[in-house]
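Case 421 in the screening queue. Each case pairs one protein sequence with one candidate compound; here the compound is magnesium ion. For every case the pipeline is the same: read the inputs, emit a complex structure as tokens, and attach any notable structural observations.

Predict complex for case 421.
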Amino acid sequence: MNYQHIQVPSQGQKITLNADNTLNVPDHPIIPFIEGDGVGVDVSPVMRRVVDAAVAKAYGGARKLEWMEVYAGAKATKLYGPNAWLPAETIDVVKEHLVSIKGPLTTPVGGGIRSLNVTLRQQLDLYVCLRPIQYFAGVPSPLKEPHKTNMVIFRENSEDIYAGIEFQADSDQARKLIQFLQDELGANKVRFPHTSGLGIKPVSREGTERLVRQAIQYAIDHDKPSVTLVHKGNIMKFTEGAFRDWGFDLAKREFGAEEIDGGVWLRLKNPNNGKNIAIKDCITDAFLQQIVLRPIEYSVIATLNLNGDYISEALAAHVGGIGIAPGANLNETVAMFEATHGTAPKYAGKDYVNPGSMILSAEMLLRHIGWTEAADTIIQAMTKSIQSKHVTYDFARMMEGAVQVSCSGFGALLVEHIEQA
Ligand SMILES: NC(=O)C1=CN([C@@H]2O[C@H](COP(=O)(O)OP(=O)(O)OC[C@H]3O[C@@H](n4cnc5c(N)ncnc54)[C@H](OP(=O)(O)O)[C@@H]3O)[C@@H](O)[C@H]2O)C=CC1
Ligand SMILES: O=C(O)CCC(=O)C(=O)O
Ligand SMILES: [Mg+2]
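Case 421 output:
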């Protein structure tokens, strides 16, 4: 295949799908990557060095990832033209190669382009944003018992106010819509109708069910004690409240969950081991309090898009910050791994930030393609590096006796630990 700017590696094959939707992974799979804006130039190359070292260590040269750079964000505009933030060939390649990884991409506030991150998720219909929250011993935390925080967030990735249906205050569209709301729907509660911008929050039964189905299946497959649906359904009854109701209905219908506590919550038996899995719910503001006070009560979290954005960043702070918080955008066939943090522009190009979020996202990628030995190697090296207290600024400033190292310095330390393992 000839692309406009993408160079296909001379070695390597595509990952393909088997008939049952499992992955067929060659020993030299081509992995598309987006470097990312801002600190993307710092963290992406370090991530690749660490992953290559882990794969080499685990498989002694029998397996290797063949990286293929694809473009989005500012780098794409330099190659493809001033408005080409997300070239079509990037979308095609990511879809076709099934497994990819990306650095952060800039989104301007107020005006300008809509989020490329959100656009990628929407165009590829990657409806699960999976963000595990795990604690590495020795990581500085504001909590007294950070090891009690052990959650996996399933953030709905395709709906909610991230759909980008917004109308600017004072525009023709906003005026028309307010008129329609007042005249046709009797909605007269817009407090300042002449100066209001409007945003629409679509939340569907299909969108909710496919997300909650994945969260419950994950709890079954990974022997987790509960799935909590987090929503603000007391206020937003037909969007967030419906998310809870549709999620509970699905748990009953597809997983045989039964009502407990007079129907307040549900319980199902894990078919793999007969253990109970509680299906609970919690209102978002209460949840944000409880994850600080009683994190041990929460395990798998299923929530809407905006809640998931807030919750994943708050929980990341409990276990060391977004410098080491990994993530993935998934559907049944395509997976795009990505750091949870953004482009941190003030640190861009300074070889300063923590590459851990990108590296641990790549660790998830390795596990996703079944290369668990290489993934384990990364986790072991990460644990050793943190315990040696040679860490980037974000950890160093909260850790007594730490030696501050650069972004690439931390990567080099990981490679050292991998090679010595
Ligand atoms: N998926 C994506 O691509 C995302 C993109 N964005 C975009 O990124 C841009 C900047 O967003 P902003 O809100 O500033 O959020 P950022 O996540 O980019 O940065 C906020 C703060 O988080 C800390 N931080 C971020 N990355 C790291 C890291 N690797 N290591 C250590 N600390 C880190 C820094 O804290 P401190 O100042 O304390 O050192 C930084 O100032 C925006 O355009 C936004 O839209 C945002 C989130 C996700
Ligand atoms: O797309 C963006 O700019 C921000 C996205 C974000 O905050 C996230 O995915 O967590
Ligand atoms: Mg975010």
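Case 421 observations:
- The longest strand covers residues 276-283.
- The longest helix spans residues 40-59.
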